[in-house]
Amino acid sequence: MLKLLFLGTPRFAVPTLDAIVHAGYEVAGVFTQPGRPKGRGQKPAESPVKDAAAKHGIPVFQPERIKRPEIVAQLAGFHADAMVVVGYGQIISQAIIDLPRLGIINVHASLLPKFRGAAPIQWAIARGETRTGVTTMRINAGLDTGDMLLRWETEIGLEENAIELGNRMSVAGAELLVTTLRGLENGTITPEPQDDAQSSLAPILKKDDGRIDWAMGASEIHNRVRGFLPWPGSYTTFRGQRLHIWKARIAENAARDFGILGMKGRHLIAACGHETALEIEEVQLEGRKKMPAEAFLNGYPLLENERLGEN
After folding, report:
1. DSSP 252
2. Is the CB of residue 96 less than 8 Å from the CB of residue 65?
3. Burial category of 174 from C-beta neighbours within 10 Å (exposed 0-12, middle 13-18, buried 19 and up)
4. How far apart are CA 88 and CA 226, in angstroms?
5. Rounded to whole angstroms, how far apart are CA atoms 179 and 286?
6. What is the 3-state secondary structure (H, E, C) of 178-237?
7. Residue closest to 61 by CA, chosen among 33, 41, 42, 25
8. pLDDT digits (tens, 9 = 90+) for 211-221
């Protein structure tokens, strides 16, 4: 049975760590990011992977920079057959890539070479993709450019958001990784180079990516509302305050100028570009709790020609 090291940080990585432990592989150590300040109190919060490793009794290491020579030497000292990386959050240097005889296997949440980068699930939804998947690949020095090993495909639901899709893909990725390890052990997997001409990028999300441009069509805005969860979310302004829109759906076309709010019964409708419309279902005004749109309307009755996105 292979001896492994696991490098990962987010909740998405936890099912993979659980799966390789349950499959009987020896996980000699887990490397994860140091605890980071979180929330209003800015108390250090440990990574989900650290908590999972503790449950399995696996030693945990949290270097600030994994590429430092003393950490590379520490990694070499494990004499691992392979390393598994799932959302670790640091660049893996060539000195580390060269260590394990079977390489470093990454679980990437897209059908490579599409959506290389830090946020493949979010950008796949935001850009209106109807299918996505998980790819296991051997890490090289590029950005998600290594040889592909195995792939799993799935449809993206019309109303599915990034959190829901991510939960499904994390489980599928864990199963795919175990299958990949067995194939590498048995010599039954033929690595496949990526076609760089077919590649696209899924860059790390920025706060400003969540700002809604109401001149976009309703479908595009709806995709971004679904895709940019849990962060940065999708937001606009209402009466000079920031208003997060957490849930929405496409409504019947509107002939009003984009950004103008209206009501259909007790439903809150925002006009979008190209004479389209979006029904806003769940909102959160700055400093307030999330609430259904109907509750929001009870507290903030609409004025005539009320517009979103104005300062």
Report:
1. S
2. no
3. buried
4. 24
5. 46
6. HHHHHHHHHCCCCCECCCHHHCCECCCCCHHHHECCCCCEHHHHHHHHHHCCCCCCEEEE
7. 33
8. 999 999 999 99
Nearest to 167 by CA among 229, 91, 99: 229
pLDDT above 90 for 274: yes
The model's pLDDT over 26-61, given as tens digits with 9 standing for 90+, comes to 999 999 999 887 766 667 789 999 999 999 999 999
Are the CB atoms for 278 and 252 separated by under 8 Å?
A: no
Asked if residue 3 lies in contact with residue 80, where contact means CB atoms within 8 angstroms, the answer is yes
Backbone angles phi, psi at 133, to 5 degrees: 175, -165
Beta carbons of 265 and 242 less than 8 angstroms apart: no
What does the pLDDT read at residue 41? 67
Q: How many C-beta neighbours within 10 Å does residue 193 have?
A: 10
* DSSP assignment of 108-157: ESSSTTTTBSS-HHHHHHHTT-SEEEEEEEE--SSSS-SPEEEEEEEEPP
What backbone phi and psi angles, to 5 degrees, belong to 178? -65, -45
Distance CA 180, CA 159 (A): 31
Structure tokens at 94: 């060539």
pLDDT at 39: 67
